[in-house]
Design goal:
This protein has about 325 residues and is an alpha/beta fold. It has helices at about 1-50, 65-80, 95-105, 125-130, 155-170, 185-200, 220-230, 245-260, 275-280, 295-310, and strands at about 55-60, 85-90, 110-115, 135-140, 150, 175-180, 205-210, 240-245, 265-270, 285-290, 315-320, 325.
């Protein structure tokens, strides 16, 4: 009897120990779940970091002082908002620009920004971006259907403002003028169209020639162009003025005129380039420029993109940052 009772007691003790062991195991599993949840939270944070918006900024004109200024300011501003930014410069090659847009679409960027580039020249590639639901913004570029926003100056109004100031205030409504342009650039096209139209209203002002300035290297190229024009217009007062569609050609033309001792020739530009402003203040041939609000353009793009990513409504189309004339 004692043996039997002892065996029953042992069985009960064993059952109790087994039950306690199971309870402790369950408790341990429950406690180990907490670190698992914490780890999951950490993984979620890592995923959020990986999901930072990827922005591709593309331009064919990074060698331009003002374009470089816009790109660097935009990149810094976007990065402060947690965006991952890649900059692509195709050095004046629009074929390469088209190819790189295709690469960006394939890599599934969250947004594309074209800086100082005509979207009409890469329309097919941008359509691929639209089809892939990749939003496209412009900064100092043109605007086509499908884009979100193009932040720019009112280039036509700016070209008209500078041409009128040159024709009336600086030339007194008479004389000869040379135009330095680069019509592949959408902003330059609009400024040049304003110049062309306004010129017709001044019958006593004669256009000697319009010269296309190469990019990259607009200062060097315009300097060479101007040197040749000085040789073919050697007599004093044969050239009254040079209207430049942006500041780099105005700088190059001014350098050539100074070297040739042609201080009587008036030069104007557009952009508000710091070197151009310095030359204006030094009383060189360069007398005036229209200062574009490049920081304002960048601010428009970054703000509208931030609103878009936040799911807020944005104002699509062209948005203008106002310009002002700088003179001594």
């Amino acid at each position: 009897m004692k043996i039997i009772k002892g065996g029953q007691i042992m069985k009960k003790v064993f059952a109790l120990v087994l039950a306690l062991t199971l309870m402790l195991s369950l408790a341990a599993c429950s406690n180990s779940a907490a670190p698992a949840d914490s780890s999951a939270g950490k993984s979620g944070t890592d995923t959020a970091t990986e999901a930072a918006k990827k922005i591709s900024i593309l331009t064919p004109y990074l060698s331009s002082v003002t374009t470089n200024q816009m790109v660097e300011t935009m990149k810094a501003s976007m990065e402060t908002k947690g965006m991952v930014v890649t900059v692509v410069d195709t050095k004046g090659d629009f074929g390469q620009l088209a190819s790189r847009i295709e690469d960006v679409v394939s890599s599934k960027a969250d947004a594309i920004v074209l800086v100082s580039a005509d979207p009409n020249q890469v329309k097919t590639q941008l359509q691929a971006a639209f089809d892939a639901s990749i939003p496209v913004f412009g900064c100092d570029s043109g605007f086509i259907e499908g884009m979100m926003v193009n932040a720019t100056s009112d280039n036509y109004a700016m070209g008209e403002m500078m041409a009128k100031y040159l024709f009336e205030d600086l030339m007194g409504g008479k004389g000869t003028v040379i135009a330095l342009t680069h019509r592949p650039h959408p902003g330059v096209v609009k400024r040049s169209e304003a110049f062309d139209k306004l010129l017709k209203e001044y019958p006593n002002i004669k256009l000697i020639t319009e010269q296309h300035i190469e990019v990259p290297g607009p200062i060097e190229n315009s300097r060479k162009v101007m040197e040749n024009l000085i040789l073919s217009n050697a007599s004093k007062d044969s050239i009254t003025a040079v209207w430049s569609a942006w500041d780099e050609p105005a700088i190059g033309a001014t350098q050539a005129l100074q070297d040739a001792g042609r201080s009587e020739v008036i030069v104007t530009g557009v952009d508000g380039n710091s070197q151009a402003v310095e030359m204006i203040n030094q009383d060189t041939n360069l007398k005036a420029t229209a200062a574009q609000n490049f920081e304002g353009m960048v601010e428009i793009v970054v703000n509208e993109m931030t609103k878009m990513f936040a799911g807020e409504e944005i104002t699509k189309g062209e948005q203008y940052a106002p310009a002002t004339i700088i003179k001594k």
